[in-house]
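Self-study notes.
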Amino acid sequence: MPPQKFLFIINPSAGARTTGWIPLIEEFFKGKSIRPEFWVMTSHTKAEQVVEIIEQSTPDKVVAVGGDGTIKLVATALLNKKIPLGILPAGSANGLAYELGIPENPAAALQVLLDGKARAIHALSIQNEICLHLSDLGLNAWAMKRFNKGGKRGMWGYALVSIQALYYARTFRLSLTIDDNNWKEKATMVVLANGTSYRTGAVINPDGSLFDDRFEVVVMKQISIVETLKMLIRSRSFDPEKLVIYPAQKVRIQCRKRIPFQIDGEFRGKVRFVEAEILPEAIQIWVPK
């Protein structure tokens, strides 16, 4: 049997570790029936280029080496294809890898590529791009804007701007159309949630799953220390006067003013309108057994 080919697509500027991935991966697979190939991204890499590289390589598995933005870019190229996507977490937060139980230790994450299994996850189509994990309007998107401007990276940097966001949070008015139902709300944040939690460990969507046939629209109506503590201790009994969760197949959000917006950790500016719908079983992703 010929060796399997794994194509590693590496973001050299992701997170704190920016060098040494290729020799580490080569050393790990030495003597194994795996042939690793490598392609290093630039700051200008587009999904179309990734599609071309994958078509040229014809790999058995594609592995994104980077954070949520890198994973999203590679996943876009693999949308509705049978080639599974593996992950080596190398970003600042690694929210999707955390959600899937993929370890941040490089050797342990590489072992998952050998011992794990492929599972289909759903994605969201939002403003002509995909979302794999969490998107939101409001306070966390404001934090992402500050975080992406630079300064302290990693989890501590993310935690710092999250605390600042709580201080600067403002309520905004919006109209929601979820499937065929309409609501008007006031909120400090609205989350379009495939997964359950942010990388900080805060569980924003306790009943969510990447493997089901729906996503959740989480409306945080007001900042509450009690509700925030519930997120951190994984409580499921949120006060509906402060936080409400709607299951959805599609959603249309209209805001009275322009609100900060992010998709999978990438700030997308201020918007007044967001429309999203589920893409069922969109990506085959390699996860721990």
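Second protein, same conventions, sequence then structure:
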Amino acid sequence: MQISIGYSKNKNVDTAVAEATTKIKAAEGIFFQCPFAMLKGVSEQIHAKFPGVPTIGTGATTYYEGEASDQILVVVAFESGCKVRSGVIRNLSKAPLVDIMPLKKSISELGAKGDNAVCLEYCTNDEERLVSTMNVELSKEKVAIAGGTVFGTPNGQKSCVCVDGVLYEDACCWLLVKSTSGKIRTYAEQIYAVPENAKFHVATKVNLATKELLTLDNRPAAEVYANELGISKNQIVDNVFKNPLGRIVGDDVYIISQYEVGSSGSLRSYKRVCENDAICILELLDYKQINEDTCRMIRQENSHISFVFSINCIYRHLFYQQENFLPQLLRNMSNIGPHVGVVGGGEQYRKQHVNQTMVCVVFE
């Protein structure tokens, strides 16, 4: 697959778009990430410059060439060896299934299946509802979702995503990419695991609307968490880097990031917990070695890497900054192949919305 990447740090929209798209010749599809203040202008300019080319984008903190910045425009163009479609799923908080038919049609038109396709996306909210909606069609052909929740929107503004030059709130933009020249593989990197002698709990009361875990084993969730780790309730939020919660489904673990303790002893998080879910407190592993192993696996499983796109959780991002590991992470990812990343407020991968995970899409 032929992919070009362009970027600009210029604060003028016209100049930034011109600089970031200089190398693009004949794009089949485009996605971009830019400073939040430039989103409307960039989306309109790219759509005008490449009319008819499927395009999605959002404001974001971007990883590119060893740097993490929310003041850079990066434009990724799929130029050959692929077929691409774009679309939007609106009203995530109410009735997103209304917009499923364009995705269904695109899957059929492209012949998207398994490891020859991926559905990239950015969304603003209601991730669990989104993932369930998209998988109504994507799961039939085993096409993976790989995307992130918009994070970093300035206070007082609403998160937006862009599809073909138009901005949407309460929505998801998607880019369905089908390769005609190689495989597309997806990976999820976790740096937390269930402890050897873990205690398993049952979510006995929740508030789905606020993503609030009220009780575990019929006791206030914060009390259970604090007692098990021998810490005070005031330490729970800061302890998320070392001991997030985990939702256990068979052999799979889905990370839940707690960000606030409620007045009644609840735990508010970035991922919904359902009643009767099996929950345990996870432990931090050797994250440096894990990333080396991830990079090694990607190189071994992909004979010729054209491009790597990663979605990294804001909590991992902040933790790696605290540990001075972020520069090494960016070097590791760039050493695999051409790499662009985004910092998300949550990650969507296959059939789940998760926290504190890095999702990677590798294009041969």
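Instructor comment on the second fold: The two ends are 6 Å apart (CA to CA).
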